[in-house]
Design a protein that fits this description.
alpha/beta; Purple Acid Phosphatase, chain A, domain 2; 6-stranded mixed beta sheet; 10 helices
Length: about 260
C-alpha cells in the first residue's frame, strides 16, 4: 500500500523563496500559519515595521518588547506613526506579502491562520491549490486531520488573537481526529517556553484536553520559534513543533 508523504511548515514570516520549495517530494503540504513578517527579532532590517520606519527604530521597538515594556513600546510606536493612517499602511504591506507568499504555496496545500495573520484577506489570495481550514477537518491519506488557527490573547496584541472560549469552541468542533494541527502549542511548559526570547508563549489548555481525550496520533504546531522541547509524547500522541520555517527553510516531514 502506497504511503502518503506530508510536509508541514509554520511561521513562514515572509520566506517565500523557501516556501516555493516546501512541497518538493510531498503529496500534500500543511501550513500552520504566520505567513506575514511584521518584525524580525533577529534581523531588524526585515519586515513591515523597518520597511516603514527603518532598522534603528525597529531595533529600539524590539528591545522594549523583549524587555516586556509593552506600554512604552506602544507609546513609541504611536510616536512613530504620528498622523499616518496606520491601518491602511499595514494592510497595504500585508497585501504585498500575501501576494508573493500565496503564489509560492505548493499545490496542494491545506493552510490555517497564525496569530499574526489577517484572515479576512486570505480569500483574495488563496489560489485553487490552497484550501483554508480553521475549526474544520479534512481527510488526507485515509487519516482525519483537524485544523485550529490563530492564537490566544496576549499583551502583544497581534492581529488574530482569540479569547480562550472562542478558541476552545473551534477545538471542540473538530471531533475525533488522527492528526491535530494548530498554530499554537498545547499548554505544556516545555513546549511553550522560548529559550531565546526567554519567555513562555501562550499555549492552549483546550488543545491539551483534546490530546488527552481524542488521543490523536500527532499534534502538530509552531508559534514558539526556539522551544525548550521540540517533541514530547503525551499518552498516545506525539506532539511536535514543526519548526521556525523562516529560519530553517525546511519543512517537517511525516509519512503514514
Amino acid at each position: 500500500m502506497r504511503r502518503t508523504r506530508v510536509h508541514v511548515v509554520s511561521d513562514v514570516h515572509g520566506n517565500a523563496e523557501a516556501l516555493a520549495r516546501a512541497g518538493d517530494g510531498a503529496d500534500v503540504t500543511l501550513c500552520l500559519g504566520d505567513l506575514v513578517l511584521f518584525l524580525d527579532y533577529a534581523d531588524h532590517s526585515r519586515g513591515i515595521f523597518p520597511e516603514l520606519f527603518g532598522a534603528e527604530a525597529a531595533g529600539r521597538y524590539v528591545a522594549l518588547r523583549t524587555e516586556r515594556r509593552y506600554v512604552e513600546a506602544r507609546a513609541y510606536a504611536r510616536e512613530l506613526w504620528g498622523d499616518t493612517d496606520r491601518a491602511a499602511a499595514i494592510e497595504a504591506a500585508v497585501r504585498r506579502q500575501y501576494a508573493e507568499l500565496f503564489a509560492a504555496l505548493p499545490t496542494p496545500t491545506f493552510a490555517t491562520y497564525g496569530n499574526v495573520d489577517v484572515p479576512r484577506l486570505w480569500p483574495e489570495y488563496a489560489g485553487e491549490g490552497t484550501t483554508v481550514v480553521d475549526g474544520e477537518t479534512v481527510e488526507i491519506g485515509g487519516l482525519t486531520v483537524g485544523f485550529v488557527g490563530g492564537g490566544l490573547r496576549t499583551p502583544m496584541r497581534t492581529p488574530y488573537e482569540l479569547d480562550p472560549e472562542t478558541f476552545a469552541a473551534k477545538v471542540a468542533a473538530l471531533g475525533p481526529v488522527d492528526v491535530l494541527c494548530s498554530h499554537i502549542p498545547p499548554d505544556v511548559p516545555e513546549l511553550c517556553y522560548d529559550t531565546v526570547a526567554r519567555r513562555f508563549e501562550h499555549g492552549s489548555r483546550a488543545l491539551l484536553e483534546a490530546i488527552h481525550t481524542l488521543r490523536p496520533r500527532y499534534a502538530l504546531f509552531g508559534h514558539v520559534h526556539q522551544p525548550l522541547a521540540r517533541r514530547m509524547r503525551i499518552g498516545a500522541t506525539e506532539c511536535v513543533n514543526v519548526g521556525h520555517f523562516n529560519a530553517t527553510g525546511e519543512p517537517f516531514v511525516l509519512e503514514w
